[in-house]
Amino acid sequence: MFSQLKRFLIGRPLKSHEAGEQKLNKKKALAILSSDALSSVAYGPEQILIVLVTVGTAAFWYSIPIAVCVLVLLTALILSYRQIIFAYPQGGGAYVVSKENLGKYPGLIAGGSLLVDYILTVAVSVSAGTDAITSAFPSLHPYNVLIAVIFVVLLTILNLRGVTESASVLAYPVYLFVIALFILIGAGLYRIVTGQVDPTMHANIGTPVAGISLFLLLRAFSSGSSALTGVEAISNAIPNFKSPAPNNAAKTLLAMGSLLALLFSGIVLLAYYYGVTPLREVTVVSQIAEQTFGRHVMYYFIQGTTALILILAANTGYSAFPLLAVNLAKDKFIPRMFTVRGDRLGYSNGIISLGALSIILIIAFEGQTEHLIPLYAVGVFIPFTLSQTGMMLKWLREKPKGWVLKWITNTTGALISLMVALMFFLTKFSQVWPVLIFLPVIVWLFYRVRRHYDDVADQLRLSTCEPPLPIDGNVVILPVAGITHVVENSLNYAKSLSPQQIIAVYVPFEREDELIFEKKWKEWQPDIRLVTLYSPYRSIIHPLSKFIDTVQRKASSANYQVTVIIPQFIPKKGWHNILHNQSSLLIRAHLLYRKNVIITTVPYHLKK
Fold this sequence. Notes:
Layout: H1 2-10, H2 26-39, H3 44-52, H4 63-87, H5 93-102, H6 104-136, H7 144-160, H8 163-193, H9 214-224, H10 233-236, H11 245-274, H12 284-293, H13 297-312, H14 314-330, H15 348-364, H16 369-398, H17 403-427, H18 429-432, H19 435-460, E1 473-480, H20 485-496, E2 501-506, H21 511-524, E3 529-532, H22 541-557, E4 560-570, H23 583-591, E5 597-605
Parallel strand pairs: 1-2, 1-4, 2-3, 4-5
């Protein structure tokens, strides 16, 4: 039944040679890898206004120069990540750049930041999309968390179906959103140019504002820079592109940067001219659309596509997280299971882990996007800073043709990214302080995982491994619970091994049972030694373990191997297992980690 449900949800398995068919062209890649960056247009300008409104609506004109500064940073980031794409075509983005140019630990900091950032990408995007839906339908506000969780589950299933299939589905909403916003911006600008917007709704540019300060403006700039989250995703996902992958990835990156610049600038301008004030339960885009079109078909079209893009922006995380996890797993910093492809040739372990962790975050933060955005943004600008610093060192060290301009570009991006990250810590420490805890913890976990793999490799390598002890014979211990076909089957198997000795062990809870069983055993198997271990405390494992230890000590002195053969019957139907005690599984689980003892399970399959 589970297999049929899996096939229904995910689809038929794909052969390994079909991996090439799962590569993305530029149009599909732009949709699923740019959705995070493009969706941030829906909340990035709002974050600027939330800071400026603290000194009054007259300060809203400052959103224009702040937006220009955000675009300067965007340009530096786009140019920088374009260089990273060609310098590191295998993907990995900030993690690979930082590791190779700054060292292992800066690389792990960048990798850890990005892993958490992609989890936050899903949580923030889905939460913001849910907010957009409930802005249009206020009666749904009490169900924010439930709606968000359902969307995460659906996105997880969609991505498990494969990169190409998810891209085919998601491309339409993304491009509809872009079209909807261009229509909104075009209609809004037309209303402004034709004088349909009341000029008293906004303060003139240059109007003096009491209480404004450089610190406040830097804080607004750093908040608005949250619109740049996701621009690094394409450099992480180069392996997902069709050949030539670096060229296609670079073109997609430039297209994303151009669209993001136009949409961000347009929303900031409309918000300023319309005099939009950020409200808790109505987004800025919703207010602009309502003032432009009224609550008619076009308004709901814009809200619908905005909600979709915000939710589907999570797909950037689903596209980039598994590939980053693969790079970390190949370097043995996270479990190797993240390198395994699933039935549909996607890295399903990474996809499922991302979905589960995102749901936990949404529930923990109760779907409140504004609480997640600062943590989300600072997690992006740390790897931004590290990757561009790494590229600065790369150009200084290698000095290729035209390296000076490249170095200046990366230096500009690194300095601005560092400033933004510091501003988040200075102005929103109460919301971003978890970074100071989870990053060291994640790096420590990376170190522990790598150390474990190194230790295992040292112990398994033939050149360094301890020589195996000689084995001159075998002693078989057979725990028995009765005289049945299950025991008979296991006993026949034990005899086939030709051991030096077979010892059957019975653990009774009552003295009467002990005597009765000994008599029956003597009549059934007089040639096989039976040991009874009376257990007044009704424990099977404790007396059995003590007996195995005793036998093992004696056997080791004669170079004998101790083998415990565990009889186990297998019911015909899986649900029948809950009707039985499963003592054999408990014994096996307990003995499995015992040194110098071999555990063998002999199954006996029931027919009805």
